[in-house]
Amino acid sequence: MPFTPFHFGPALLFGVPLRRRLDFVTFLVGNVIVDVRATLVFFGILSGRLHGPLHTYLGATLLAGVLAGGVLACARWAPDVMDRISSRPDSVGAVLLASVTGTWLHVTLDSVLYLDIRPFAPLSINPLYGMTSMIVIYAGCVLALGLGGVASLPALRNWMNATQ
Fold first, then answer.
1. C-beta neighbour count of 44 within 10 angstroms
2. Which of 74-83, 111-120, 154-163 shows the lowest mean pLDDT across its residues?
3. What mean pLDDT do residues 98-109 have?
4. Whole domain around residue 126: which residue ranges?
5. Would you say residue 136 has pLDDT above 80?
6. What is the mean pLDDT of the chain?
7. Is 5 exposed, middle or buried (0-12, 13-18, 19+ CB in 10 A)?
8. Closest to 23 in 3D by CA, of 77, 91, 81
9. N or C: which terminal CB in the chain sees fewer CB atoms within 10 Å?
10. Which pLDDT belongs to residue 162?
C-alpha cells in the first residue's frame, strides 16, 4: 500500500476478535513492519525494488521470527516496557501466530495490488495480482479501520483504566 497505515485497518478488524488467540500488539506490528525496507527504498536510503524480499511469504516468515524473538525478549527482560504498551504475551504460540499472520496478511494485501511483488519467491509469479481493484482494497482497509476501531473501544477502555 502506498501508505503503511492502511494496514492497521485489517489488523484491527482481525486482531480484536482474535486477541485471545494471538498477541494483539505483535499482530499490529506484524501488519506494518513488512514495509520497513520499502520505506527506506522509497526515501532513497536503500536502493532496489520497492517491494523486495520482505514482500514474499518466505521473507515475511523470517521477519516474523525476528519480530517474535524481539517481543519475547522484551517480555522477558523488559516487562515494564511491555506493561506500558500492552499486557505481556500469554504464550510463545500467541506471539508466533500473531507475527506470522500479521506479516502474511500484509504480503497478501499488497500482492493483490502490485505487480512487482513476488509473494511465492523464488518463483517469479504473483497469482494474487489483480484479484480485485485497488479501490476495493483501499475502501476495505478504511472500512476495516472503522469497524476494528469501534470493536477495540471496550479493550482500549479497559487498558486505559488498568494503566491509571
1. 7
2. 154-163
3. 96
4. 4-163
5. yes
6. 88
7. exposed
8. 91
9. C
10. 64
Which grid cell is 153?
473501544
Cell readout for 11 is: 489488523
Q: Return the sign of the alpha-carbon dihedral for residues 72, 74, 76, 77.
A: positive
48, three cell numbers: 532496489
C-alpha grid cell, residue 92:
510463545
**156 vs 7: CA distance, rounded Å:** 19
Tens-place pLDDT, residues 108-126: 999 999 999 999 999 999 9
Beta carbons of 128 and 105 less than 8 angstroms apart: no
CB 57 within 8 A of CB 120: yes
Count of the separate structural domains present in the chain: 1
- Per-residue pLDDT at 96: 95
Q: Which grid coordinates belong to 131?
A: 484479484
